[in-house]
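agent> Task received from the user: take the single chain below, predict its 3D structure, and emit structure tokens. No templates, no multimer pairing.
agent> Plan: (1) validate residues, (2) run structure prediction, (3) serialize to tokens, (4) report one or two observations.
agent> Step 1 OK, no nonstandard residues flagged.
tool_call: predict_structure(input=
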Amino acid sequence: MEKGCAAVGRAALWGNVLGCVLLGGMALLVTADVVMRGFGASLSGVFEVVEVLMGALVGCGLAYTGVTHSHLEVEILTDMMPRRVRHALGALGALLGCAFCAAVGWKTADYAVDAFANGECTPTTSFQTWPFIGLLGTGFFLLAVVSLIHVREHLRERRRHDA
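)
tool_result: status=success, residues=163
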């Protein structure tokens, strides 16, 4: 089980690295477009390419946020509860999060398959959209797995995070 958790952590880290690369590429693309506008020219389709990349960027960072416990947690009430109740509620919340992320991942993956089958692409640049939609879905699936790991941690009452 520990090897599986380590593999999920590595996948989340590499997803985050890919997201950083996409963000850097988007920044360079927008900067180049702005500079070119200063000379009276423009890169056509920059807005739609950045729009497509933004969805993939979100998917790339989802699991890393879960693995590093960098997400927002409001613990005002749960901190006053007994330890077992806190862990039970934490496990329930993580299980509901897993179900939600798996459902969103499934729907997004279904949309990516439809986009591939229909040859969906951006209007100006004819950029294929399905790989980027697929990255978003993959991020949700990986976050669902991270949520299952959190359920396990809560049930073992050994959850560690920054407080």
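agent> Step 4: summary for the user.
DSSP finds four helices and no strands in the chain.
agent> Done.
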